[in-house]
Model the fold of this input.
Amino acid sequence: MPLHPSIASGIAEILSRLQDANVSFAGQRILITGGAGFLGSWMCDVLVEQAADVVCLDNLTSGLASHVAHLHDRDNFTFVQHDISKPYYPEGEIDLILHMASRASPMEFTEHPISILKANTLGIWVALGIAKAKGARLMYTSTSEVYGDPDPRFVPSPETYNGNVNPVGIRGCYDESKRCGEAFVIAYEREHGLDARISRIFNTYGPRIRSEGIYGRALPRFIDQALSGKPITIFGTGEQTRSFTYVVDEIEGLLRLAAADNAKGKVVNIGNTKERSILDLANVVQAAVGTDAPLEFGPLPDDDPLRRCPDTSRAKELLDWQARTSLEDGLVQTVEWFRDQRS
Ligand SMILES: NC(=O)c1ccc[n+]([C@@H]2O[C@H](COP(=O)([O-])OP(=O)(O)OC[C@H]3O[C@@H](n4cnc5c(N)ncnc54)[C@H](O)[C@@H]3O)[C@@H](O)[C@H]2O)c1
Done:
């Protein structure tokens, strides 16, 4: 089946940006854990097109086999169904590991806290062991959640801010395991000299994002509700903020970081610096879908961060990267994809 136009054009845009930046992974053998997920499958698409040899490893818990099904007939793509929190010994050379495996949506923090903890502690430990054995570079996809509910004096949050996380709160399984994962990565970099780096991803959206579950990520849930003509459910007053990064910008930033020779041992925020309230998001989604579906307000879940916005000066300086796509433009593509999935 051909790729949806929103995905095909997004991949073409990323490839063109990478070419302009002289970033190429051609000929590298790359292990992507979590490769059948939302972001992982975009990585697989781009890297297969760049003529890398891609090994996509996934246990298909939150990811979908269908995200990468179209790649199975490519000679430079292999799919391995495996849980990366258990030992894994790939054959042959590996040049780069992108450790992306982890459930990542708030609903899953409640339903699957243990597997989240394992993916970001045992899983990164397994991935680091492979990197060490193969002499590979590794990039870990951490999260803005390491900042927890940030002190307003540190919003926009720079990488030097240590965060404000409740280890035993409902989000603790994700936030604290990502923090532990970061500590693992830096320990291997310090003790074994491993060429490892950490990306902190801020809320990313686009085609292939999943919307299931009432506590799922706000943006896909809003689109789903708006397209169904249902009320859009906002938790709290809607004054809490997030910054939303379109998948094309995010994948470009992540790949620039993975390729950068000046980023060993570095932690880099990859996100859009435009801070938007959740109420604002609901209005933009209504406009993108063309609906006047009403807004409904419910209680704010425990430990929900009040503000979230990255300081991306480091990404600009190290990688010459910044997000380019406005929320309004990114939503046009995303809504089109959601609409076509429903039909
Ligand atoms: N999308 C975002 O806004 C965002 C924000 C911050 C961080 N991240 C991080 O980026 C990565 C990818 O996120 P995503 O949005 O694509 O989520 P996703 O849920 O779509 O993808 C995660 C993938 O990992 C797989 N997986 C989970 N546990 C695994 C295990 N133990 N072994 C093998 N595979 C496993 C899942 O099946 C899924 O395919 C995650 O590490 C996430 O924490 C994402």
User: Anything to note?
Assistant: The chain has a mean pLDDT of 96. Residues 5-202+247-273+311-325 form a domain with the Rossmann fold fold (CATH 3.40.50.720). The longest helix spans residues 172-192.
